Amino acid sequence: MPDRSPARVEITGEGPVLIHGPVELVMPDGVRIRSERAVTALCTCRRSRRYPMCDTSHRRCARNRRKESE
């Protein structure tokens, strides 16, 4: 019998959205992406080269902003 517990989605604020547990993403063009990982990180800044998956590109941008404001 499949596990019916709800997926947990974590909004991190300055980084990706974290989805805990397996997930299937449906893209605007209908392509489906399945992730069986324990935690899947979804990009919210659109800088990821692996969009919609996060590749931590937001970290480089945040560092650059900090340097400019100093």
From TrEMBL:
Keyword Metal-binding in annotation: yes
Top-level division of the source organism's lineage: Bacteria
InterPro entries listed in its UniProt record: FeS-contain_CDGSH-typ (IPR018967), MitoNEET_CISD (IPR042216)
Keyword entries, A-Z: 2Fe-2S, Iron, Iron-sulfur, Metal-binding
CC annotations in GO: cytoplasm
Occurrences of domain Iron-binding zinc finger CDGSH type (ranges): 20-64
Gene Ontology terms for molecular function: 2 iron, 2 sulfur cluster binding; metal ion binding
The UniProt record lists the keyword Iron-sulfur: yes
The protein's name: Iron-binding CDGSH zinc finger protein
Taxonomic placement: Bacteria, Bacillati, Actinomycetota, Actinomycetes, Pseudonocardiales
